[in-house]
Amino acid sequence: MKASIKSFLLSILLLLMLIVVFAAVVKGKPGNPIAYQFEKSTEVGSPFESTNTASRYALVESIMENGRFDFTIDQARFAAPDMVQYGDKFFSIFTPGVSFVTLPFYFIGKQIGFPQLIAFTSTIVFAIVNFFLLLRITQRLGAKKPAAICAALVFTFATNALPYALTLTQHTASVTILLLCLLNATAEKRSFLNNTLFGLLYGSSLLIDFPNLFLLFPIGIYILSKNFTISDGATELKVGLKAAVVGLAVGFLPLVLLFGFYNFSLTGSPLKFGQMMVRSDYFDTKAQQASNQKMAENQDAYAPVLPFNTRAQLKGVRILLISNERSWLYYSPVIWIGLLGLVTSYKQSKTKSMSVVLLGVLVTTILLYSMFGDPWGGWTFGPRYLIPAAAILAIFLAMAIERFARNLLFSTIFLVLSFYSIFITFAGALTTNSIPPKVEAEQLSQFIPYTVDYNFQKLSKNESSSLFYNSQLKNEISLKNYHYGLFGFTSFILFIIYISRFTNELKFRKNKE
Amino acid sequence: MRLPASTFQLRIDKALLQKLYLFLNRHAEVILLVSLIIISIFNFVLYYRNGLGLAYNDARSHLDIGRRVVEGLKPGLAQLGSVWLPLPHILMVPTIWNDFMWHSGLSGALQSMVSFVATGITIYFILKTLKVGLLGRLFGVLVFVANINILFLQSTAMTELLLLATMTIGSYQLLLWHQEDTVLRLIKTAFWIMLSTLIRYDGWFLFLFATALVVYKGFKKGGYKTSEGMFVLFCTLAGFGIFLWFLWNLLIFKDPLYFIFGPYSAHAQQQQLDASGVLQTKGNLPLSLLLYWLAMAYNSGAFTVFLGIFGAAVLLVDKKIPKDLRIALSALLAPLAFNIIALYLGHSVLFIQGISGNTWFNIRYGIMMMPSLAVFIGYLVHRMKPIRWLVIGLFLFTVLLQFVNGDAVTIDDGRVGSSQKNVTEVSSWLNRNTKDEKGFILISAASHDAIIFSSGLPMIKYIHEGTGAYWESATTSPDRWARWIIMRTNDENDQTFKLIKKSGSLGKYDLVKTYPFADIYKLKPEYEVNLNTEASLGKQK
Fold this sequence. Notes:
The structure holds 2 protein chains of 2 kinds.
Chain A: H1 3-25, H2 51-66, H3 73-79, E1 83-86, E2 89-92, H4 97-111, H5 115-140, H6 145-157, H7 161-164, H8 171-185, H9 192-208, H10 212-215, H11 217-225, E3 228-232, E4 236-242, H12 246-267, H13 286-297, H14 313-322, H15 328-331, H16 338-347, H17 349-370, H18 387-404, H19 408-430, H20 438-441, H21 453-460, H22 467-473, H23 479-512
Antiparallel strand pairs in A: 1-2, 3-4
Chain B: E1 6-13, H1 14-49, H2 57-70, H3 87-96, H4 99-103, H5 106-129, H6 134-145, H7 148-153, H8 160-180, H9 183-197, H10 202-238, H11 240-253, H12 258-261, H13 266-276, H14 285-300, H15 302-317, H16 323-328, H17 334-345, H18 370-383, H19 388-405, H20 409-415, H21 424-434, E2 440-443, H22 445-455, E3 462-463, H23 469-476, H24 478-481, E4 482-487, H25 495-503, E5 509-514, E6 519-523
Parallel strand pairs in B: 2-3, 2-4
Antiparallel strand pairs in B: 4-6, 5-6
Helix pairs in contact in B: 1-5, 2-3, 2-22, 5-6, 5-8, 5-18, 6-18, 8-9, 8-10, 9-10, 10-17, 14-15, 14-17, 15-18, 18-19, 21-22
């Protein structure tokens, strides 16, 4: 069979696999015929359990139903506390990009009576695109197909990218833009077109989430540097700047203008936007409002002015990288193996410069969010702010697999950690993302565990968020068994693809002989 | 439409570029010196104007000690006391006689500013000795300079920068000695380390550490005899300051160990803290490590510390640096070892907000590794060419955020932590009500130096522990000598209260004011007839 047909068939199989698994975990429950389509329940396990999803969905609704960017009182209540008040307008605290891309999905969904379900499918589409983008990038950097697929599977199903692919948050789309930028950066020559494309991507990253501007900055610098030419003559040095560099601005400006227009319509200023404002306490109790007012009046003149504070860095690093509350160490330890791949890529001259760029994005992400006042990300599953960093490490993971898969110790560690990570990830995807931070959990009148134990509790109680399980299998099998089934299926696929690398090598050696 | 290949081309004459590079290389030190001086002066003015330069209670005490040497009821070198090592106060003597130099803090800050410049230049030279390129050298200095805590401390009369300068220069000289192996270089090393031993006890640890390095190198070079000779030569000079300090305590206080066991010693303070149960690090190595690690991270920046550790590791394993030099560079780790050991032994106290309660105290101790981190990071940038610009970019990013947020833990300690004392109420009252009236104020300098400083009154107005016969007389018969008494009533730690209580004369005073830090008593008018208002006891020995 021709290699291209084989490759195409493999892609179709992978796509089917992704669709099946996502369909098995997408959030919902039976209703009329499916719940949450028109009622805004924020119960735990529902699609709207988290207000960062609710706020973005409220904006989608506001645009589609009211033709406005600001909220009605009901929409504001639904989005609270992730909304701000400016004058007499309530609007989402978040940048509008995720809501904008959800609009066509919502429209289609509304036509068939499932606006929420189809709207949320937008994120799943991005998650699937991310899978294939990872394949492309890792292969471009030198990983063969099995290693690339393993890495993509790990990112998609062994990190909290999966549970967040079922929400309307910025993480999945941010990863898409990041990976597209990386793909763009690997282009051999900088042309006007690919500069414009990068500009567009960079502009859209701002619309998706403001901190993306910083996360993608290393890639931007790398691309900008590639637009310079230096020729070393006998008596003079010629530094040239390609005309194509204009494409960066051409691509960037329209989306910035769109963002400015959005801000202007809400605040009267193109530069004033929700993420730089204080959350509204309009729906808080009077006592809480009075307390907020007092705090604002007594604020220390030397208090930090930005949401990113260097003083918080140590705590943030601990929370994100090693704590049992949110870290990779407990939720997706397999991703750490990517560091091995980082070292390997750095040592090879072919991949050295790209690995430095990737390292820049990785460290910027960790640095930035470790300095954030709330590294937990609220009530979340795993380190949600590090999802883009997990994608970077997944790329390096492919390099590590490529290099060390022959090593039995490496293979054992990789597979064990992968299976563990997949097990944890599906526990989150099937139940809830809303795990409280320790400091809040300890204040609750009814204690909720602040680790993945909470998800295991829900598994034991058969409290699932999965639409398919709730509507088709709830009376047939326990949620635990359903969890084992999905875990087993995904792990099996990963295992088969991983060992196929060996069989390919054996075949290669046999042919050589 | 095809765009032209380039719209902008810059042609640079290579000869000019080469000239520029040579000029920079040749004059880098001068440019650096001028830049550091400008930065130093700018920051002093900034912190002088916003008042933070005098926020630290200790800074005011240091200035008062210096002032008491030149002005007061019993001026003289004996006023240097035994609480702190004497060099910072001695250095103030040429300038602190001037009221502005005293009350602005400039007399003390001046040595911090000079030390700041000296440390920056020394970092540059250390990196130059390690054959680090111009970019690495300048970046190393930048790491040191672009630290708000350093910039703040160099604007104050605190002793950190002076200590950093002498220790860093001492370590640099030690590095050069390992390279050159000359007697003159060893003497220079000993000299700078000797100076550090007269500033803080961190210098004593460096002295021991450096001695061990000298002995080790001597032994490797020529066996026991050579190492013995080097040991004697080195210790004679480097240890001279320590010897002088023991002698000073013997001569002035009749006890060579008075600085350890005296009533105002750090040991006495530590004992009190231990009794209150707040000396948590004593005997607890993990906690000592944790607290100092946190102190370093809060002072230098977590990312900077991480880069420093990475840089140190690269330096340690780099075979391009001769083994001897790498061993010599271990002196840069002396502050780290000292502070952890001091915490573990209970000789040092450090509060971290959130761990040791809700306050900061002595958090500035974490700044002691800053020059070392700067050297390690400068070296890292030099060696790791492919990630050089990434490291520089990320560092600048975090520094920018630090400056925009004004994240300076040393300022917080001085503003709201346990290192501050807002005695404005007491000192303002004194300034308003005693300035124009004759008579002395009886006060314990050990407890209330901040009040003395902040009152703006001349030192000669005060009778305190260091005034000899005046103190003895005033605490026995206060109504004969003190028109006003400042003390914390019922606090046995306040020497004034402790002694006045015994004299039974408090009934002759009216309680005029009660403030959080001290009470103010004034002599009743009917007892004024016997009051001495002149310094009539003459010159005391």
